[in-house]
């Protein structure tokens, strides 16, 4: 039973290295949502993440003899820094195996805390396999990032602090979910002492392994994991963490990349902290839950779990925040191709501010324009705008939720290519490291002609590319095997409305 964790949490040894973080009011969010919002500031830990708690509690429980041989872990970031600092505090060796795609800020963070960094493999599974091989070859103890009783107990001290700091009303606690160590520890403690308070997990919609397991009634492996919120990019919930979550977690909410970006901005506005994407996950889920349930006057706690973000990535987060908050609509609109059309279109937009406008001449009959429009979420939504333009006779395609439009097409609007035949379109994610783009081009361009290509670096551990490839109809059946051999995550976008409207 999860009750076994109460004593382990109370006795967890985390404060040799971790600090009791404050529970800060969020005045702007509270006013806007008409609820009392409190933020648990785990971004203020010495390693800027909650992971230090579980890592230290796990290591310190080892025997002196076991500790003396050293520890090893596989991690792309926050757990790695927690293990490195914990081992340094205890005066033992720590080997940290990280994917070669790990952002430089996290590699430097591990090394600055005394960890021995081994860069191995393009993905976490490859790094994990290498770390486990070091357990066999060098006698190191493996420190699991989430699926370990002592790790879970260490993370559970966050729940203990929340209940100590908030002795009054507490309606719900929102917790980010990756492998489940944090939510298992927090949920076990909160549900034991405050069973009336909801514990709600929040997952990125492209790595929702806990929700998939809860829906299926058993652990499942996601066929593909989105890397946008890399701190929670886990394909399968932990075995022990799922056992606890089944009994103690009330619900799981999933959120989009845009909603996460908007939450990063919300936390900055209220705390002046710049969280990483997974660090703002719980806040994004809290906002979505409040809107869905029409909550008012409730006391809600959200955990800001980490702030290890690459500075270069802030550009992308800032761009997407307005869309995530519903303050920008992205539209594809067809207007007549003759003088004065754009002016008349702007008149139909009314007092709304145009934030972006992309256009290229195609023929003398009509023009397709890519337009961003500033919205005022408190007065009217984009549905009203789309309806107003449709009523005025314009053909409108709402692209606000279209990933291809937001990631690629907005930077590519340059006209159709009528001479290009047999084009199929695919979107890819691949590990971002020196030479990765060239490697991708070499592999994609070996069989068929590339007719369209767009890549943009977002300061993340992965690259995003959209590619048009000319494949004769009689060879289309060979595409799946070809793409699987490349080995990168991919989605077909040949029928995407943004592509067809501006590029196809």
Q: Give the strand line-up of the largest sheet.
A: 1-2-10-7-8-9
Share of residues in helices: 25-40%
Strand content range: 15-25%
Going by helix content, strand content and strand pairing, the class is alpha/beta
The gross shape turns out to be globular
Could you name the ranges where pLDDT drops below 50 across 5 or more consecutive residues? none
CA-atom Rg in angstroms: 25 Å
State the end-to-end CA separation. Answer: 57 Å
| Number of continuous helical runs | 20
CATH topology (level 3) name of the largest domain: Rossmann fold
State the domain count: 4
Strand tally is 18
Please write the CATH class name of the largest domain: Alpha Beta
User: For the report, how would you describe the main beta sheet?
Assistant: 6 strands, mixed
Mean pLDDT: 87
CATH architecture of the largest domain: 3-Layer(aba) Sandwich
Description:
This protein is an alpha/beta fold and 504 residues long. It has 20 helices and 18 strands. The protein has helices at 4-10, 27-33, 51-60, 64-68, 78-90, 104-112, 124-138, 149-165, 181-193, 209-216, 239-248, 257-271, 281-293, 314-324, 341-349, 382-391, 403-407, 436-444, 479-486, 497-502; strands at 23-25, 36-41, 71-74, 94-98, 116-119, 141-142, 172-176, 198-204, 251-255, 299-304, 328-336, 354-359, 366-374, 395-398, 423-431, 449-456, 462-470, 489-492. The longest helix has 17 residues, at 149-165.
């Amino acid at each position: 039973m999860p009750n076994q964790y109460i004593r382990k949490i109370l006795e967890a040894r985390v404060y040799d290295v971790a600090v009791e973080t404050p529970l800060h009011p969020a005045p702007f969010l509270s006013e806007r949502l008409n609820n009392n919002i409190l933020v648990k500031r785990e971004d203020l830990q010495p390693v800027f993440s909650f992971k230090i708690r579980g890592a230290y509690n796990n290591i310190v429980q080892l025997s002196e003899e076991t500790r003396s041989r050293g520890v090893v872990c596989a991690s792309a970031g926050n757990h790695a820094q927690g293990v490195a600092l914990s081992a340094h505090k205890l005066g033992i060796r720590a080997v940290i195996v990280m994917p070669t795609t790990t952002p430089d800020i996290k590699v430097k963070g591990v090394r600055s805390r005394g960890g021995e960094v081994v860069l191995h493999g393009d993905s976490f599974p490859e790094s994990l396999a290498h770390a486990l091989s070091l357990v066999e070859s060098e006698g190191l103890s493996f420190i699991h990032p989430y699926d370990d009783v002592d790790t879970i107990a260490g993370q559970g001290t966050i729940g203990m602090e929340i209940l100590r700091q908030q002795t009054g009303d507490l309606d719900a606690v929102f917790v980010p979910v990756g492998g489940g160590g944090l939510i298992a520890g927090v949920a076990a403690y909160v549900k034991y002492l405050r069973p009336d308070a909801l514990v709600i997990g929040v997952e990125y919609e492209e790595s929702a392994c806990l929700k998939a397991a809860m829906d299926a009634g058993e652990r499942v492996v996601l066929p593909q994991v989105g890397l946008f919120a890399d701190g929670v990019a886990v394909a399968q919930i932990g075995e022990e963490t799922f056992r606890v979550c089944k009994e103690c977690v009330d619900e799981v909410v999933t959120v989009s990349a845009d909603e996460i970006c908007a939450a990063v901005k919300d936390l900055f506005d209220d705390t002046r902290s710049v969280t990483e994407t997974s660090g703002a996950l719980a806040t994004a889920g809290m906002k979505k839950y409040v809107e869905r349930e029409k909550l008012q006057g409730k006391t809600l706690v959200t955990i800001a779990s980490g702030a290890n973000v690459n500075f270069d990535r802030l550009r992308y987060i800032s761009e997407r925040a307005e869309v995530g908050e519903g303050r920008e609509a992205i539209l594809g609109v067809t207007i007549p191709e003759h003088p004065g059309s754009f002016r008349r279109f702007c008149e139909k937009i009314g007092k709304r501010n145009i934030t972006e406008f992309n256009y290229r001449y195609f023929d003398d009959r009509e023009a397709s324009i890519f337009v961003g429009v500033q919205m005022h979420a408190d007065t009217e939504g984009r549905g009203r705008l789309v309806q107003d333009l449709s009523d005025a006779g314009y053909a409108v395609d709402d692209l606000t939720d279209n990933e291809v439009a937001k990631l690629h097409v907005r930077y590519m609007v340059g006209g159709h290519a009528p001479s290009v035949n047999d084009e199929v379109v695919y979107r890819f994610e691949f590990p971002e490291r020196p030479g990765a783009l060239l490697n991708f081009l070499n592999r994609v361009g070996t069989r068929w002609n590339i007719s369209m290509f767009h890549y943009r670096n977002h300061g993340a551990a992965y690259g995003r590319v959209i590619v048009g490839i000319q494949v004769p109809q009689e060879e289309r059946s060979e595409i799946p095997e070809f793409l699987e051999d490349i080995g990168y995550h991919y989605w077909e976008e040949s029928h995407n409305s943004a592509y067809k409207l501006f590029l196809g």
